[in-house]
Amino acid sequence: MVQRTRPVRFRRPRIPDAVVHRVPPGQFVTPRWPVLHQGDIPVFDPAAWDFRVWGLAAQPLDLTWDQFRDLPTIAVSGDLHCVTRWSSLDHEWDGVAPRTIVELAAVDPAARFVLLHGEAGYTANIPLDVFLADDAVLATHHGGAPLTPEHGAPLRAVVPGRYAWKSVKWLRGVEFLAEDQPGFWEEFGYSNSADPWREERFEP
Ligand SMILES: Nc1nc2c(c(=O)[nH]1)N[C@H]1C(S)=C(S)[C@@H](COP(=O)(O)O)O[C@H]1N2
Ligand SMILES: [Mo]
Questions:
Q1: Model confidence over 110-166: pLDDT tens digits?
Q2: Which of 31, 47, 68, 148 is deepest in the core (most CB within 10 A)?
Q3: Looking at the domain assignment, is residue 48 inside a domain?
């Protein structure tokens, strides 16, 4: 049996002063970009892939990959805050503005909530105003390069104002709703609102 002569010391990682105001309570900053999800990474087949918009929309959409790629794009930068306590800062995304989707689909004024649909039934819910926030994007690119499979290729939602489980990877659709509906983790007791600045990790 190995005997320790000195106690092992654990140190809390220090948050650099320059970014401390960008790190929500109870989070630490990782210099890496972790990969986190449940289930398997889906295979992207551009011929079979589509992007659907439905629910409270006068013009429901079913776009092919080529059609999606023809939409106008924006560039957005933002941070990812995972509820498991890592924050990964300064991500640069290119993709389609949520507002573009809302306009194309002629979303009904009665719509107040959005359910983001990923591959294999993964979902996350957010209010429409969070979806339309300036820093939210339906991203196809990160750091100028196409998304890699593990980070959500070909398309992911990025919702920096909420814990990152709402940033649905492998996004395949957006549903507009009048009433809120819990998504995958929200059904398991994770916070519905999930504001990292208020440390809303779980439903009280
Ligand atoms: N489709 C899908 N999207 C997902 C998840 C998932 O399990 N499935 N996990 C979420 C969680 S918990 C986090 S922290 C982020 C992680 O994104 P990253 O792997 O690009 O860092 O993806 C989110 N998007
Ligand atoms: Mo997460």
A1: 999 999 999 999 999 999 999 999 999 999 999 999 999 999 999 999 999 999 999
A2: 68
A3: no
Partners of residue 145 on adjacent β-strands? 142
Within a domain: 163:
yes
Please name the amino acid found at residue 102. V
| Structural domain count of the chain | 1
- State how far the Cα of 144 lies from the Cα of 50, in Å rounded to an integer: 23
57 located within any domain:
no
User: Which pLDDT value is given to residue 204?
Assistant: 87
Q: How far apart are CA 45 and CA 99, in angstroms?
A: 26
The per-residue pLDDT for range 48-93, each reduced to its tens digit, is: 999 999 999 999 999 999 999 999 999 999 999 999 999 999 999 9
Q: Residue with structure tokens 């593990």?
A: 150
Q: Whose CA is nearest to atom 23 of ligand 1?
A: 165
**Gap from CA of 8 to ligand 2 centroid (Å):** 29
Domain that holds residue 196: 71-204
pLDDT surpassing 70 at residue 11 = no
Query: CA-CA distance, 119 to 111, in Å (whole number)?
Result: 23
Is residue 60 assigned to a domain? no
- CATH value at residue 116: 3.90.420.10
Cβ-proximal residues to 176 (8 Å cutoff; 6+ apart), any chain: 53, 54, 55, 56, 57, 102, 105, 107, 108, 111, 113, 114, 128
